[in-house]
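[scheduler] slot 2 assigned
[scheduler] job type: sequence-to-structure, two independent chains
[scheduler] chain ordering preserved from manifest
[runner] begin chain α
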Amino acid sequence: MKSLFAILFIFMLQTFSAQKDHDTYANGIFSFEENKAQKIFTDNTRIRQLPDVASPVLDSLNTNQDILIIKKEDSILKLGERAANWYKVSYQKEGKMSEGYVWGGNLCVDYRNKNGYDFLFGLTKTVKIKDGQFKDEEVQQNRAGVKMIKENILIDEVSFETGSGESLNYGTFNVESGHKLKNVELTLKATVSGEACGIPSYDQYILLKDKKLITLPQLINVGDADVYYHSEQFIFPNDKGGVSNTIIFKMEEMEKDENDREKKKYATKFYVWDGSSFNIK
């Protein structure tokens, strides 16, 4: 009888687990179009026989490997705060064309090529950090990364936080000018954002100097209808109101009180760039 109860318990647990997986929604940042080229972000990404983490491994691919998305599968795998579909892909390796299945969380969110370098933007993992408001508690936060690669050799990489899974509705990645900063070849901007009120978006600027990636302080923007908002931005030297070799940080915050009156806060910081690093003025 005990064995029967044990079997029934395991069956119910598996059913609940399967239902939980079925109800999991993929983060929009990992939605890739079929019949489109893509790149591998996570090094040694496993290619599987079927779209399942328990399926046999057919191959492994390195960062910056070109692949072609053949089909987006219905099955979803969630690791930490990252939830992504499985994809059937094809690729060429050592002169041979092959096919298999890859988890979408191991692919680049976006990538760019500039001045002979490949710049890859992707999500790396979920980590636990101390809550800013409740210091005794921990919250799960995603870590993102940008890699600079030339001829499939990693030149440099940086990582930064991107919030919880709610902030992964979509992402963008762009190459901008050097913003007239001394010795800066170009500027990269990676953004992730949610679509609902109260869900923050994250802007990460990265400077390229002498084959080194240098992160600026991260910008966070969040709002809740017309009740509250928190806005952060950078003003670069080539922007209107810019100052030579100085990055101006501006913050504005508004919150309505119980009488529907607006209370605003402002803050300004000056990051002076000396050609190799920046200091707060």
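[runner] end chain α
[runner] begin chain β
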Amino acid sequence: MLRFLTGIIFCISLILFFSVYISPEFFPYAGILTLLIPPLILVNALIFVLLVLAKRRLALLPLLAIILGWRFIGVTFQLHPHAENPEGLSILSYNVHLLSYTKKGEDPNAVTQNIIKWLKDNPSDIKCFQEFYQDYTTPSQNAIKALATDTGYEYSYQVIVGNPTKRSYGMVIFSKYPIINEGKVFDTKQTNGVIYADIKVDKDTVRIYNAHLESMSISSEGLSNLDGIKENYRETLGKLKRGQVSRAAQLSILQEHMGNSPYANILVGDFNDVPYSYTYFSLRKIMKNAFETAGRGFGFTYNKILFFLRIDNIFYDDILQVERFKTHKEVDYSDHYPISATFTWEKPLRKIVAEEE
């Protein structure tokens, strides 16, 4: 019986470990099944210990499963030393929840002013925000004025919904360095999309992608107790499946656009997907992840009931080196935590010699 159970768990482990390379467009539930990878690794570890104590050769199976699944441990937890104030190009990414994330009893205007002050005081060279709200009609809500006009930053603001001259929300990239080109990869006319900006850094140019992929649209409050889980599990599974399929399609568009970039790419944002996903591992094949290279701890970025999610990321081309990565858990002005990274490089960043020379 023990041999049978160990063999079954080993086979399931192999299937799940390789399912991250299957597009949800072909098998919609693949992305849902991968959520079982972390507990499955723990189960294999427990079986391995028990079999070792029992002096059974069968322990080789869970050991092999752990070895094959080791990369999932690396995307989950890191112990890199924390570098203080390194030199280089610093980038901040933050889903700011329309600058209006309030808790019970809080004054919405005070919350808006607090988060704008923190964003303004943050010294990062480049700041990328998702779910950004802009109101030109109300001075206290004019975030572009506070974060760009008054501080000397250039900006690329791509409106998704609203009136561009009055009230709107979309995605924005602020930069201390000149923005020489900008554009929108796609948007969903809701809150999701991807934008980019080519930024001139001294003699080099880097392309920054700011992404907000399809949301999971799951109410964490409805999953906060057993009754809520029972009532919402079918709806939740449906949303997870639809989100996985949508993100896979969006990822194809994004990858094609990045492949045509003449410059080194840095991709930041809210990916609405965990590290055990097709989205994450597809990007991981062509780019490095700053958390894996320089992060520390679990790096959870979600600031709600489902606190154990890391869905915000910074990916980068391997011509760059990341000197520091940080999840700003001390900043709770949104349902996400900000993340930041600092980059250096030795070789010219352009993939193609620009004609400007």
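[runner] end chain β
[qc] chain β: The longest strand covers residues 126-135.
[scheduler] slot 2 released
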